[in-house]
Design a protein that fits this description.
Chain lengths: 114, 113
């Protein structure tokens, strides 16, 4: 079974631009979570989707948004990019809920904001 | 202000020795705990999990111990190998009804050949 895939793997943007990242979960998984990983803050939860509904959102500004499609694929969007948004963005999927069954991570998208 | 990077605790072990990585979790309501391994340039990889109705669980070369009294989790790796070199994270679920995992800051394991 294929793992979680994320595209693109690397992105370079400039301040003020916006970016969209994509995540395809493991087949059969309906929950998708997004995390931001930085050297300063570690792994921080962004949001979680299940059956196209956002069930939980982390403490991030409204510039960070996401959505999930009927095939469980998910996208996250960051508008008006800031230098501090440079990070590894990780997507994870699981069958039902990340808090009751195993969550599997993708390789991440490395975003650099110049 | 200036961004300060995380100063990850580092554990250096000799190849073949056993490793013990510790984690203190924060939420007494958490009832599901997971250990992940992250190698450089890759996403976190699931190692082992444990639910709060257990205090020990064993996998292949790994054992997780849970002490709910002091909110402490540990990961034991037997016969540590160079391929075990990575950053290890513990995560907790925050209890029933939560939909997010909270991750610890991580411990860097370096295996000396």
């Amino acid at each position: 079974k294929a793992g979680v895939t994320q595209t693109p793997r690397y992105l370079i943007k400039t301040r003020g631009q916006q970016v969209t990242l994509s995540c395809s979960p493991i087949s059969g998984h309906r929950s998708v979570s997004w995390y931001q990983q930085t050297p300063g803050q570690g792994l921080q939860f962004l949001f979680e989707y299940f059956s196209e509904t956002q069930r939980n959102k982390g403490n991030f500004p409204g510039r960070f948004s996401g959505r999930q499609f009927s095939n469980s694929r998910s996208e996250m969007n960051v508008s008006t990019l800031e230098l501090g948004d440079s990070a590894l963005y990780l997507c994870a999927s699981n069958v039902g809920a990340p808090t009751t069954d195993t969550q599997y991570f993708g390789p991440g998208t490395r975003l650099t904001v110049l | 202000g200036e961004s300060v990077g995380l100063h990850l605790p580092t554990l250096s072990v000799q190849e073949g020795d056993n490793s013990i990585i510790n984690c203190a979790y924060s939420n007494s309501a958490s009832d599901y705990f997971i250990w992940y391994k992250q190698e450089s340039g890759k996403g976190p990889q699931f190692i082992i999990d444990i639910r709060s109705n257990m205090d020990k669980r064993q996998g292949q070369r790994v054992t997780v111990l849970l002490n709910k009294t002091v909110k402490h989790l540990s990961l034991q790796i037997a016969a540590t190998q160079p391929g075990d070199s990575a950053v290890y994270f513990c995560a907790e679920n925050g209890g029933a009804g939560s939909y997010q995992l909270t991750f610890g800051k991580g411990t860097k394991l370096s295996v000396i050949p």
